[in-house]
C-alpha cells in the first residue's frame, strides 16, 4: 500500500562533521568527528551520519515513515542489503535496530550533490568553540562539589554526564539550547563556549541554580570582570543567596531558607510585584536586543535605558515603575545594587523634572474680582444669583472652605442691630480656631461687608 513519507530528512558528511535536517520543522542534527573518524572512508562517515541522525531524532520519528536523502550511492545499498565490510556492517545493523526499536519505516534514496546543498553546508560547520576538560579534571571537581547531575554544554563526544544539553540535536541529548531550560533542577557542570560565558552566568543567576563554572584564565576577556573583582583580585560574590549555601544541608535550617524568597515577595503588595515583573521583563528584552547583561546590570546599562525612556516622553509614574522594578530585582538577588549609583540617581531625578507637568497655581481672588461678581449678579432680583454673591463674600472674608460654606445654616448667623456686622458660630476645624481670636472659641468676626 502506497504511503506518503511523514518526515523527510537530508543527510551529508564532510571531513570534519556530519549533519542533517528535517524538512518543515527544520530540526538540525550536527556532530563533529573525532580524529579516528576523520581518517575513515567517506562511505563510513556518510553511513555514520545516517545512524547518528536517526538516533538523535528517534523520539520524534517513532512510528513514522521516513524518507532520507543522501548523495552517497553506497549508503543506499548498505542500508538496504548490508555490507561485506565489518565496520560498515556494524553501522548498518545499528540503523536496523534503531528503526526496529522505534517502529520506524526507513526509505533511503540517492540524490545528486547539487540537490543536497543545505545538508552539505551544515556538515562543513566547524565548531571552533568546541572545547572541554579531561575526564580526570571532571572527576576531581565531581569529588569536591558533586555529584553533578547535568552537563549544560556538551555533545555526544565530550559529555561527562548522561543528562546533557547540546547546541544541535545529537545522539543522547536531553535538549537543544541549554538556555531554554531551568537549571535550578540540577547540580550543573558548566563548561560553556567562550562567547557564552557571560550569558551562562546570567542564566545561572536568573534560575538561582548551583553548579561549577569552568572558564579559561583569560584576564583580558569581556567576561573576566564578572568573575574576578579587578580591584581586589578576588572572586565576585554574585548572589544574595550565596551566603545561605553553607546552611542548606542542615535539615532544620533548610526549611527556613526555602521560605525566604516568599517572605521577601511579601514585603511588597502582590500588585506591586506583578508590576515590577512586567517592567523588568521590558528591561530584560531591551538588554537582549542590544547584547547587554541585565542580571546583574551595570549602572551604565541602566542609565542608557532610563535615558532612552526619558527621550520617549513617558510619564513620571512609568519612569519610576521602570527604575524601581530594576532596583527591586537587584535588591532581591545581589549584594551590590547598581541603582545606588549617584550618577544614575541624578538621571532619574532629572527625568522626573523634565517629564513632570508644570503646576499652574491659581491666581488669588482679589477685591476687584469680587466687585465684578457683585456687578454682574448682585443687581438682579434672583435669589440664586444673590446666593452666589453672598457665598463668595463670606468665603473671602472668613477664609472659609467650600465644605464650611455649604454647612452654614440660618441658626449659625447672628446679625447686629445696626446691620453692619454679623457673627458666625465657628466649628472645630483648625482654620476656624485661628480666625476666632479670643472670644471664647465659639464666635468669629468675619469683617465689614460694606468694605468688600
UniProtKB/TrEMBL annotation:
Residues 65-124 form the RNase H type-1 domain. Keywords: DNA recombination, DNA-binding. GO terms for biological process: DNA integration; DNA recombination. Gene3D superfamilies: 1.10.150.130, Intergrase catalytic core (1.10.443.10), Ribonuclease H-like superfamily/Ribonuclease H (3.30.420.10). Pfam families: RVT_3. The keyword DNA-binding applies. One of its GO terms (molecular function) is RNA-DNA hybrid ribonuclease activity. InterPro entries: DNA_brk_join_enz, Hepadnavirus_pol/RT, Integrase-like_cat_sf, Integrase_recombinase_N, RNaseH-like_sf, RNaseH_domain, RNaseH_sf. It comes from the Eukaryota. PANTHER family: REVERSE TRANSCRIPTASE DOMAIN-CONTAINING PROTEIN, RIBONUCLEASE H. This is RNase H type-1 domain-containing protein. The lineage of its organism: Eukaryota, Metazoa, Spiralia, Lophotrochozoa, Mollusca.
Amino acid at each position: 500500500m502506497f504511503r506518503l513519507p511523514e518526515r523527510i530528512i537530508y543527510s551529508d558528511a564532510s571531513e570534519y562533521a556530519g549533519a542533517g535536517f528535517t524538512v518543515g520543522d527544520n530540526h538540525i542534527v550536527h556532530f563533529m568527528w573525532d580524529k579516528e573518524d576523520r581518517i575513515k572512508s567517506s562511505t563510513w562517515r556518510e553511513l555514520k551520519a545516517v545512524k547518528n541522525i536517526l538516533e538523535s531524532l528517534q523520539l520524534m520519528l517513532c512510528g513514522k515513515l521516513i524518507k532520507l536523502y543522501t548523495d552517497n550511492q553506497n549508503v543506499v545499498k548498505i542500508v538496504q542489503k548490508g555490507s561485506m565490510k565489518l565496520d560498515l556492517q556494524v553501522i548498518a545493523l545499528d540503523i536496523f535496530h534503531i528503526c526496529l526499536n522505534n517502529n520506524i519505516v526507513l526509505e533511503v534514496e540517492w540524490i545528486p550533490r547539487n540537490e543536497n546543498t543545505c545538508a552539505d553546508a551544515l556538515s562543513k560547520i566547524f565548531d571552533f568553540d568546541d572545547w572541554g576538560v579531561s575526564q580526570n579534571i571532571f572527576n576531581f571537581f565531581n569529588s569536591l562539589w558533586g555529584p553533578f547531575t547535568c552537563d549544560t554544554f556538551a555533545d555526544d563526544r565530550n559529555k561527562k554526564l548522561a543528562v546533557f544539553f547540546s547546541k544541535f540535536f545529537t545522539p543522547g541529548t536531553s535538549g537543544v539550547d541549554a538556555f531554554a531550560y531551568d537549571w535550578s533542577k540540577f547540580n550543573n557542570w558548566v563548561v560553556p563556549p567562550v562567547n557564552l560565558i557571560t550569558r551562562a552566568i546570567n542564566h545561572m543567576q536568573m534560575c538561582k541554580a548551583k553548579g561549577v563554572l569552568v572558564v579559561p584564565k583569560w584576564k583580558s576577556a569581556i567576561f573576566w570582570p564578572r568573575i574576578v573583582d579587578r580591584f581586589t583580585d578576588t572572586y565576585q560574590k554574585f548572589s544574595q543567596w550565596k551566603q545561605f549555601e553553607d546552611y542548606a544541608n542542615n535539615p532544620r535550617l533548610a526549611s527556613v531558607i526555602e521560605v525566604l524568597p516568599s517572605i521577601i515577595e511579601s514585603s511588597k503588595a502582590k500588585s506591586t510585584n506583578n508590576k515590577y515583573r512586567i517592567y523588568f521583563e521590558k528591561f530584560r528584552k531591551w538588554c537582549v536586543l542590544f547584547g547587554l547583561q541585565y542580571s546583574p546590570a551595570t549602572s551604565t546599562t541602566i542609565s542608557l535605558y532610563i535615558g532612552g525612556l526619558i527621550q520617549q516622553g513617558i510619564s513620571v509614574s512609568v519612569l519610576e515603575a521602570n527604575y524601581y522594578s530594576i532596583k527591586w530585582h537587584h535588591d532581591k538577588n545581589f549584594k551590590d545594587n547598581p541603582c545606588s549609583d549617584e550618577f544614575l540617581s541624578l538621571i532619574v531625578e532629572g527625568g522626573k523634572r523634565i517629564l513632570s507637568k508644570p503646576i499652574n497655581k491659581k491666581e488669588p481672588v482679589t477685591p476687584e474680582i469680587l466687585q465684578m461678581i457683585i456687578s454682574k449678579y448682585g443687581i438682579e432680583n434672583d435669589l440664586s444669583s444673590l446666593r452666589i454673591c453672598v457665598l463668595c463674600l463670606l468665603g473671602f472674608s472668613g477664609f472659609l472652605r467650600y465644605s464650611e460654606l455649604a454647612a452654614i445654616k440660618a441658626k449659625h448667623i447672628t446679625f447686629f442691630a445696626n446691620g453692619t456686622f454679623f457673627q458666625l458660630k465657628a466649628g472645630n476645624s483648625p482654620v476656624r480656631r485661628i480666625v476666632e481670636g479670643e472670644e471664647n472659641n465659639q464666635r468669629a468676626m468675619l469683617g465689614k461687608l460694606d468694605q468688600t
